[in-house]
Amino acid sequence: MAAGRIFDPLGFASPFTIRFKILFQEIWQRKTDWDEELLPDIREKFEQWCSEASFLCELQIPRYVLQCDSVNCPECEIHTFSDASIKAYGAVSYVRLRTFDKISVHLLASKSRVAPLKVLTLPRLELMGALLAARLAKEVSRVLNEKISTTNYFWTDSTIALSWIQGPSNRWKVFVANRVKEIRSLTDKDSWRHCPGKDNPSDLLTRGISADSLINCEKWWKGPSFLQEGNTVPVSNNVLLSDESAYLEELKPTERKNFDCDFRQQPFEPYPLCI
Q1: PANTHER family, from UniProt (predicted)?
Q2: How far apart are alpha carbons 96 and 103 in whole angstroms?
């Protein structure tokens, strides 16, 4: 099978392979047995995906991207982006090297997951993407920090997930609280920033693209254009919520109790009687 022959431990081809994962889940949801023929629409998608897989032979990956040390490269940043759709969520990390005369950006690794079979709201899926980003950045940082010190930045286009992360975890219901707690344990809340959807390269992990488009996709291999510029923080992390009701829905309810107090008119006996 074409999918089984793709060896991609760093996730360079994830925007292409996620399409197969989504398709496989769709087959599972339709309860197709292993010995049954695929339905015509599924078969067409599968054959199309297999025919495109041959284009990956043209893919060329730079073998060494960290071409400096702490002396020659005073600034080394890891920028990790996350995104989600109703079908999948994912995260991708880039290294941004700023030397005295130029800036270079390289793709380091990515992770993608199909959305759970249990239907979740899009903000919750976005939060799961953010958690995946935090875990990915931890591993990337661990490897790079052996050679050079790094600074982490995290980007999401979800204003709701961003607000959850920047608030205390004990404010939210269990699902959100548990994930926010882990994200806060792995990252600094002030390192999270908002990225417009059109600039978010991890969007490709949530919907997939063709193999030939992947090879020539500058945004995937080099990240958004603002990483190539001098300003590392082009967008404020203080943004308006896109859906306030979805944000408030995850607030933990405040429990109130009323107590009836019955005070005695004479709670104490006269002092002489106590002697």
Answers
A1: ASPARTIC PUTATIVE DOMAIN-CONTAINING PROTEIN-RELATED, RETROTRANSPOSON
A2: 7
